[in-house]
Design brief:
It is found in: Peroxisome. InterPro entries: ClpP/crotonase-like_dom_sf (IPR029045), ECH/Chromodomain_protein (IPR051053), Enoyl-CoA_hydra/iso (IPR001753). One of its GO terms (molecular function) is delta(3)-delta(2)-enoyl-CoA isomerase activity. It is a single chain. By secondary structure, the chain is α/β, with parallel strands linked by helices. The chain has one domain: 2-enoyl-CoA Hydratase, Chain A, domain 1 (Alpha-Beta Complex). Helices cover 48% and strands 17% of the residues. It is built from eleven helices and ten strands. The strands form two sheets. The chain has a six-stranded mixed sheet, with helices on both faces. Strands 4-6-8-9 form a four-stranded mixed sheet.
Length: 252
């Protein structure tokens, strides 16, 4: 099972569960996560969604072996990718989303945090947006959401440099709301999730809608721009060379 789902005190917990692959997203996990987010959104007994990872990683991003195979056989397109379904589900989620970043977050393991309402991060976790090192464009409207969340220069560094950002720096930037010791991460995230979940669900939804509504046009415009650039760069010389190198080491 690539995604574990459990309920407690009106909090639905989703655990990315490909620990041997550092929870890298393949098409199966994208679809499972998209479906679980939509199901949580429509369930009247769910007030808050908590997302975390199994094992030592939050998510190592796209499964690059699957990506390379999709480029080779021509099956990897935005229209045929469940990635788009997951991003749409994140965009449309009307209930609070809390992310507990338990380990490395790479690529989508970082950019999905732009859709979180609260981010808790282990003191030993690290984040990276590796797009320039992979010869591709940003994803998941990160070119819009990250500047809104952490400021243009912090976002520019993360998106342009392909360098790691540790938990302390992520907190300073405003990407992580709280940094916890590893053993305290999930208890703290759950404690705060249950504080929110004790509130009126219609009120939670109304507050989140009011917060998110002004950003939806920017998300849509950024997504269109990123998708066009991604399609142009995918499979190009820089991307092909990077995938050949990375797939020799596994997903990232």
């Amino acid at each position: 099972m690539t995604l574990q789902i459990s309920d407690d005190n009106r909090v639905r917990t989703l655990v990315l569960n490909r620990p041997d692959a550092l929870n890298a997203f393949n098409q199966e996990l994208y679809l499972a996560t998209a479906t679980a987010l939509a199901d949580a959104d429509s369930d009247p007994d769910v007030a808050v969604v908590l997302l975390t990872g199994a094992g030592r990683a939050f998510s190592a991003g796209n499964d690059l072996k699957e990506m390379a195979a999709g480029i080779a056989d021509g099956s990897l397109t935005s229209a045929g990718s469940h990635f788009t379904k997951m991003i749409d589900a994140l965009t449309d989620l009307s209930k609070p989303l809390i992310c507990a970043v338990n380990g490395v977050g790479l690529g989508i393991g970082t950019t999905l945090l732009g859709y979180a309402d609260l981010v808790f991060m282990s003191a030993t976790a690290r984040l990276k947006c590796p797009f320039t090192s992979l010869g591709v464009a940003p994803e998941a409207a990160s070119s819009y959401l990250l500047p809104q969340l952490i400021g243009r220069q912090n976002a520019a560094w993360m998106l342009l440099s392909s360098e790691w950002v540790d938990a302390e720096e992520a907190h300073r930037m405003g990407l992580a709301w709280k940094v916890c010791e590893p053993d305290d991460l999930l208890p703290e995230a759950r404690r705060h999730a249950e504080i929110l979940a004790a509130q009126s669900i219609p009120s939670l939804v109304a507050v989140k809608k009011a917060i998110v509504a002004p950003f939806r046009p920017g998300i849509s415009a950024a997504t269109d721009c990123e998708n066009a650039a991604f399609a142009e760069l995918l499979g190009g010389a820089a991307n092909a060379a990077a995938l050949a190198e990375f797939t020799g080491r596994g997903s990232a």
